[in-house]
Design goal:
Length: 347
C-alpha cells in the first residue's frame, strides 16, 4: 500500500514539475540591481496569486551567475546567486537585466555569459532583455536580423555597435522567435507583464499590473524620448549641418539649402548625413523642430497654433501628424500630460 502511495505521489510531483517554468535571472557584472530584483519579485508575487486561487506555483525563479557572489555599484551591493551558469542544465526563460556604465566595457566583463545565453536559447529557452540589457543580448549574435528595443537614450550607440539588428525606435516591447526586449528604464515592467500574460493568462497579468501600479497597455516610449541629436561621429560637414538646423529651428529649412551652404551635392550630403546620424536630413529637421515644440508645450502658455507657426509649420494636420509620429501623442495630449496649466484647445 505504501509503495503504491509513494508511486502516486512521485508521479504527481513529476507532472507538477513538468508544468513549472524555470526562470533564470542572469546576474551580470556591472548590472542594475533593480532590474534583477524586480523580475524576481514579480514572478514570486504571481506564484502567490496562483496559490491564493488554489493553483500550484508556476514559476521556479533562480538568480544565476558565473560566480556565487556578484558585487555591484562599486561594491555597494552584493547579489548572491542561487546557481552557477555551468550548473544550469536547462531553463525555460532567461532574463537579462539592464547593464550599467560603459556598454562596451560591460559586455567585455560578461563574455562568459554570452555562450551560456546562446546555449540556453538553442536548447529551447526564451530570452528577454530588460532596457540596456539589450546590449548584452545583441552581443551574442542572437538578435542579428531581428527587431529589438532598448532605452531611447542609448539608441544611437546601439545602432553603431550592432548594425545588423533592427532597432524598433520607440517600442516598449518587441517579440520575435522567442526573443524579447523592452524599452528604457521602467518600461521593462511592460515586458514582464507581457511574459506573465503569456505564461498564465490575461486575468493574472491585469492583477499583477494593478498590484504593481503599472499601465499594462503602454506600448510606446516615444512620449518619454528626448532628442539630443547624434554628434558622436567625425564628419565635420554633417556636424555643421546639425548645428545649422538646431540654431534655425524657427526657420523653414530645405535640404538643398543646407547642401548648398556646405558646397556638397544633395545626394552625397544625404548619404553622409544618414551614415553619421542614422536619420535622413528631413527626419532630423522634423525631430529638432518637434523637440523645440515639446519644450514649449511643457513650459509655456502659448497656444498650439502659436507653437506650430513658430517652428515653421502652417498646416495644422501636417503638424499634428508629424508630432504624433514622433511622440506617440497629439500636441494637446502631450500638453495635458506634462503641463500643469491645462489650456482648452482642440488641436
Amino acid at each position: 500500500m505504501y509503495k503504491r502511495l509513494f508511486k502516486g505521489l512521485f508521479a504527481t510531483t513529476i507532472l507538477y514539475l513538468q508544468g513549472m517554468k524555470n526562470v533564470s535571472i542572469l546576474v551580470p557584472e556591472s548590472s542594475v540591481i533593480q532590474a534583477i530584483a524586480d523580475p524576481q519579485y514579480l514572478f514570486s508575487v504571481v506564484n502567490q496569486f496562483l496559490a491564493m486561487n488554489g493553483k500550484p506555483h508556476l514559476f521556479r525563479v533562480e538568480l544565476v551567475a558565473v560566480k556565487k557572489e556578484i558585487k555591484l555599484n562599486n561594491g555597494m551591493f552584493s547579489v548572491q546567486a542561487h546557481t552557477l551558469l555551468k550548473d544550469v542544465k536547462k531553463t525555460d526563460l532567461v532574463i537579462i537585466p539592464a547593464l550599467f556604465g560603459n556598454m562596451a566595457e560591460a559586455i567585455q566583463l560578461n563574455k562568459r555569459a554570452q555562450s551560456w545565453i546562446v546555449k540556453q536559447y538553442r536548447q529551447g529557452a526564451e530570452v528577454a532583455s530588460l532596457c540596456v540589457g539589450a546590449f548584452l543580448l545583441a552581443s551574442t549574435g542572437l538578435l542579428n536580423g531581428k527587431k529589438c528595443s532598448t532605452h531611447w537614450g542609448f539608441a544611437h550607440e546601439f545602432n553603431k555597435m550592432f548594425p545588423r539588428v533592427t532597432l524598433a525606435d520607440g517600442h516598449t516591447v518587441t517579440e520575435e522567435n522567442g526573443i524579447y526586449s523592452s524599452g528604457g528604464a521602467h518600461s521593462y515592467w511592460n515586458l514582464l507583464l507581457h511574459l506573465v500574460e503569456k505564461y498564465t493568462n490575461r486575468e493574472t497579468a491585469i492583477l499583477a499590473s494593478k498590484y504593481f501600479a503599472i499601465d499594462i497597455n503602454r506600448n510606446s516610449q516615444l512620449a518619454f524620448t528626448i532628442f539630443n541629436g547624434q554628434k558622436n561621429h567625425t564628419d565635420a560637414a554633417v556636424k555643421n549641418a546639425q548645428e545649422y538646423i538646431e540654431h534655425n529651428v524657427q526657420e523653414k529649412i530645405s535640404v538643398d539649402e543646407i547642401a548648398s551652404q556646405l558646397a556638397l551635392g544633395r545626394r552625397s550630403f544625404e548619404r553622409r548625413f544618414r551614415q553619421a546620424t542614422h536619420n535622413s536630413v528631413l527626419e532630423y529637421i522634423q525631430r529638432v523642430k518637434i523637440e523645440w515644440a515639446k519644450r514649449q508645450l511643457e513650459n509655456s502658455r502659448k497656444s498650439i497654433s502659436e507653437i506650430m507657426y513658430a517652428v515653421g509649420y502652417t498646416d495644422p494636420k501636417s503638424f499634428r501628424d508629424i508630432f504624433k509620429k514622433i511622440t506617440g501623442l497629439t500636441p494637446i495630449e502631450y500638453r495635458n500630460k506634462y503641463n500643469k496649466t491645462k489650456l482648452t484647445e482642440d488641436f
